[in-house]
Each structure stands twice: as structure tokens, then as C-alpha cells.
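Title: Comparing notes on inverse folding

I've been comparing how different people in this forum approach sequence design from structure. To keep things fair, I'm posting one structure and asking everyone to reply with a full sequence. Here's the target:
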């Protein structure tokens, strides 16, 4: 029978002791794994749906229409597979993940702009103006979010630095008030 000393009990129960680093890392690892699972599945569904809908577009007298065929489901599967491979690259932290991010962004823009080929020529000017205004508005929102993030990161770093900075010792018998 093993007897537990007070040090062993306090180290086991104290979450700030180094013994519990493995538990924290395991929890972070589980959270990271869950995040990548959710992100990869949702991206796969989104990219598959975008690729499938782009593959089902057909020209019609009014502009375009959707015709679901076998090609739609094949495009969905290819889009989903590309998204799953992308998240595997991101999880591996490789340099190819950066290139893949650029390719995914370009593919997303391409999938967004692809239906424009079905728009009648008379409506292109109005559509272009709307796209330009939407791009400007989204760029401004993105810029504001980036600035807020920078502010919050700086504030967090300053708060961490203030916590780490030791309080100045006051010698007994001397008052700091004058």
C-alpha cells in the first residue's frame, strides 16, 4: 500500500503546479482536434455546395438556371475533398498550407464570379457597381475588425506585462505618502 505525502496531494490538487501541464496540453489538444474537425467538415460542406451549384448552372433565356445532374454530385465530392485536404495541410503547419490558402481564396472568388457569365450584357454595369460597393463595404468592415483585434492584442499584452511586473517593495517604517 502506498502512502501519499502532503506534497504529493498538494501537487495533485494544485492546477498551477507543473505536474498538471500534461493534462492542460491534452485538453488543448482535444480542443484543437475538435476545432479542426468542425472547421474541416463545415468547409467541406460549403465548398462542396459551392462547387456543386456552379456545376449545375446552365444558360437560359432569362439568365441562368440550375439543372442537377451527376456532374453536380461529382463536383460536390471534389469540392469537399479539396476542403478536407486543405485542412489537413493547415493542421500540419506546412508551407504548402499558405499556398493552399491562396488557392482556396482564388477558387472561392472564382466560384463567386463564375455565374456572371450568365448575366445579360445590359445588366453587367449595374452588377459591377453593386459588386464594387459590396467589396468596399466588406473591406472597410475587415479593416475595422483588424484594428479592433490589434487593439485587443496590445491591451492584453499590456495587462500581462502589468501582472508580471513585481510590486515595488516598501521598507518597514517608511511611508510612501507625503
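Reply #1:
Here's my take.
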Amino acid at each position: 500500500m502506498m502512502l501519499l505525502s502532503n506534497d504529493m496531494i498538494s501537487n495533485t490538487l494544485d492546477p498551477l503546479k507543473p505536474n498538471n501541464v500534461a493534462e492542460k496540453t491534452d485538453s488543448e489538444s482535444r480542443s484543437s482536434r475538435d476545432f479542426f474537425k468542425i472547421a474541416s467538415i463545415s468547409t467541406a460542406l460549403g465548398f462542396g455546395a459551392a462547387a456543386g451549384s456552379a456545376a449545375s448552372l446552365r444558360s437560359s433565356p432569362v439568365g441562368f438556371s440550375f439543372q442537377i445532374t451527376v456532374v453536380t454530385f461529382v463536383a460536390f465530392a471534389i469540392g469537399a475533398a479539396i476542403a478536407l485536404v486543405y485542412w489537413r495541410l493547415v493542421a500540419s503547419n506546412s508551407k504548402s498550407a499558405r499556398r493552399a490558402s491562396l488557392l482556396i481564396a482564388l477558387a472561392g472568388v472564382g466560384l463567386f464570379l463564375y455565374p456572371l457569365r450568365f448575366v445579360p450584357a445590359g445588366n453587367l454595369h449595374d452588377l459591377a457597381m453593386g459588386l464594387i460597393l459590396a467589396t468596399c463595404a466588406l473591406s472597410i468592415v475587415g479593416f475595422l475588425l483588424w484594428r479592433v483585434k490589434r487593439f485587443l492584442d496590445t491591451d492584453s499584452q499590456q495587462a500581462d506585462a502589468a501582472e508580471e511586473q513585481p510590486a515595488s517593495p516598501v521598507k518597514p517604517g517608511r511611508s510612501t505618502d507625503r
